[in-house]
Write a structure and sequence with these properties.
By secondary structure, this protein is an alpha/beta fold. It is 46% helix and 12% strand. It is built from 14 helices and ten strands. The strands form three sheets. The chain has a six-stranded parallel β-sheet, sandwiched between helices. The chain is globular.
């Protein structure tokens, strides 16, 4: 059996690595894409200091879960002057980086509708113009800095689209745990659980390979060991650094496998119930783990490396989540047993659900 692993992102990790940014920008005219609180946290001022006259535009109105109605205006304003910017820098969590990935690929007519129509139809989109991207995460969990995917939401239509092109891999990822010291507890928890989900989803995945397994198992160990300690010491740089590295490893794992069933479930939970992404993809992990065990002896062996004895692993994983204040039953989120079963069955048919090693089995209970 042969395996292939590919990740073209040049990743730089460590406290203070943000100082390397000017050398990577190399004098190119730059647009910064970030979140509204970045100014009050002093992050925009820091970027202005680092980039000087090369920083020609700041887009700082990126909201959580980028919606088509917000993205349209941002996209069309950005591409109305394509010559203004040579490079995009994304600073923030997954929403900021995903927004930057949408902005970096221009349609021939500069219209956002052209891109969305291609995503709606499930067709390939060939950008007429592209801008290189440097991704700088301020959370430890998204993995977007080392993957080509961007999630686009349409709340009104209750739909979620995934943009993924060869052009949407970032050129560089700067992972600086100093940027994460000001994260509040809720964001720390949600992003940390997202990293755990990415790692486990990369293991119970039909696309898994030995390299992705190496990253995924290490990430699971580090999240389980670090996240509870970090929640009690949010200002501890060493713990922030360990979580940042765990999230990077999880991102490197699922950059080759994509996510699977838990994420497929999460999209509907976010759209219909407004559940934050990290919680939405983490709470069903014990259920999905129980369904994964026994389908593939090689996957079982890797899961055991990550979680220990599999006969008790789902209960131990549930206890871990509950110790962090995360209930693990659909009913805890107002979802009836019938709705939950329907959601599971629907999730199995989605693109991410089909990545799950147990997707062919329909005997799942909520």
């Amino acid at each position: 059996m042969t395996h292939s692993y590919f990740n073209p992102v040049h990743s730089l990790y460590g406290a203070g690595v943000l100082a390397r940014l000017p050398s990577l920008v190399a004098g190119r005219r730059t647009t910064l894409v970030t979140f509204p609180q970045a100014r009050e946290l002093g992050l925009v001022a820091r970027m202005e200091e680092l980039l000087g006259d090369t920083l020609v535009e700041v887009i700082d109105d990126v909201r959580a879960n980028p919606d088509v109605r917000e993205l349209r205006a941002q996209y069309e304003a950005f591409w109305s002057q394509p010559e203004r910017t040579e490079l995009v820098v994304a600073l923030g969590g997954g929403s900021a980086i995903d927004t930057a990935k949408v902005l970096m690929v221009g349609s021939a007519d500069g219209a956002f509708a052209t891109l969305i129509k291609a995503l709606e139809a499930g067709q390939g989109f060939t950008p007429a113009s592209t801008k290189p991207l440097i991704a700088i995460p301020t959370t430890a969990g998204t993995g977007s800095e080392v993957t080509p995917w961007a999630t686009v939401w349409d709340q009104q239509a209750q739909k979620k689209y995934s943009l993924h092109l060869p052009q949407t891999w970032p050129d560089f990822a700067l992972i600086d745990p100093q940027l994460m010291l000001t994260l509040p507890a809720s964001v720390t928890l949600h992003s940390g659980l997202d990293a755990l989900s990415h790692a486990l989803e990369a293991i119970w995945n039909v696309n898994a390979n030995p390299v992705s397994d190496t990253f995924a198992v290490a990430a699971v160990h580090e999240v389980l060991a670090t996240l509870p300690a970090l929640m009690g010491a949010l200002g501890e740089l060493d713990l922030r650094a360990r979580m940042a590295l765990a999230a990077l490893k999880a991102g490197m794992a699922f950059s080759n496998t994509r996510t699977a069933l838990a994420h497929s479930i999460s999209y509907e939970m976010t759209l219909r119930y407004g559940l934050p992404h990290g919680i939405a993809c983490a709470f069903p992990l014990p259920l999905v783990l129980a369904c994964a065990v026994g389908h593939d002896a090689r996957r079982d062996a890797v899961l055991e490396q990550a979680l220990g004895p599999l006969n008790t692993a789902p209960a131990r994983l549930a206890a871990f989540l509950q110790s962090l204040g995360v209930p693990t039953q659909f009913a805890d989120y107002g979802v009836s047993q019938i709705e939950a079963q329907q959601m599971l069955e629907h999730a199995l048919t989605g693109p991410r659900g089909r990545n799950f090693i147990g997707a062919v089995a329909q005997a799942m209970t909520a």
